[in-house]
Amino acid sequence: MRCMGALSKRCCLLFAAFGMSVWFMASNQNFFGTSESLCPTSNCVCPQSECVCPLCPEAKECVCPKSECPWCAEAKDNTSQTKLWVPTKEDPGGYRHMHDHAPAFSFVNSQDLLPKLKAVFGFVEGDQGGLDGMYAKELAMSVYSQAEDLKDNTVMTVLSVGSGDCSREVAMSRLIRSEHPRIRPHFTCCDPIDIAFEGANKTILALPPDERNGFAAVRSLAAPMRPWNAVHAHYSLHHFTDLKELFTHISLHLNSTHGKFVIADMITRNGHQRWPEQRLLGEMLWKLLPDSQRYDFILNKYIELFPNYDYTCNGTHPFNEGIHSQDILPLLVKMFSFQKFVAYGGVMFEYVGRRLAANFDTDNEKDKAFLEVAVALQNQAIAAGEIKPDQMIATLSLNAQLPMRVWKGLTPEFCVRRSEDPVDGDVQPMSSCV
Q: How far apart, in Å, are the Cα atoms of 283 and each of 111, 147, 286, 399?
């Protein structure tokens, strides 16, 4: 793979065509709108000296009739929890939790991820449980693949790595029980973070007694463990500081013939930074956006440069955010066999993540067109080998004899970035760990 002194000719041509079409639409149809204020209120109310309302870039004072200005970073209690709440474009007077995805996130996933999940995993949109339902089916296959006729109350042992408060595991257990009444899943929810461990115990204790018996919460894998029918990790592997030790433990305890290791995670550069070639493509798209769509809803301000942060905070992040994300896929390729593998993203992570997604209105045809073409360009660059995907969803096992299903030739090996490819150090400093 070249480090994109330029994109491949095919990608450059596509980008050039997109740029010309944007120029044409902007010059002939007022593509990016007018410079008039979009603020729904005539005046503004923030206690800050400068208004940070993203819809009022020219305002110097705030006048919102609310006691808590939704555009202000200090609106809640002047605590670190403030940044968990960001304004919404859908309801300019209200808030949304930062972990609740903006519509642009779902729109891009419908364009990019959903077709791949349908083809590789047989995912059906609208199925019970959504993504959790798909996980549940994959986990259940660790038992169903062993016998055509299961006995009643067949126990299925599942280790959930980095499980948080265990609520996702409760949902998956209920789906498995509903779809496969002969299976009795038992989830061991493992998370070393105190608040997660405490949350898991609270979740388990709140369950009815007959359901509670199907769960346990642990802080670590140091204690003797039972053999696992399946292991599940949902966007948690990138928090672990010793992936090789974790994967070795899993390989020693996972059923060697039928066991399933079901994963969704980041597989990009450590700290979720962009690799140089990804950043180049991201910056090319960034130049097409007007200033009004460059608002960072976490920092609560307009930003000039395409964001490229080290989310490890130079290794000081309390939860080790993205600490070894670039090592996940290479280690999995060495230590496990893939049965199903979907890789996606590469540039759109920043555009539809917490920071920027609310800048795009999915009811606006022009915003939708930008997102659609950006996804197409990203996927063209991935197919050409110019950039690598930054996320994956996969089912793995220890049985190398099982066939593998992938999307259009995007094998795990193809999606690993070569260690000899250039790396730069041009990363924007984090003002705080968010």
A: 21, 52, 5, 42
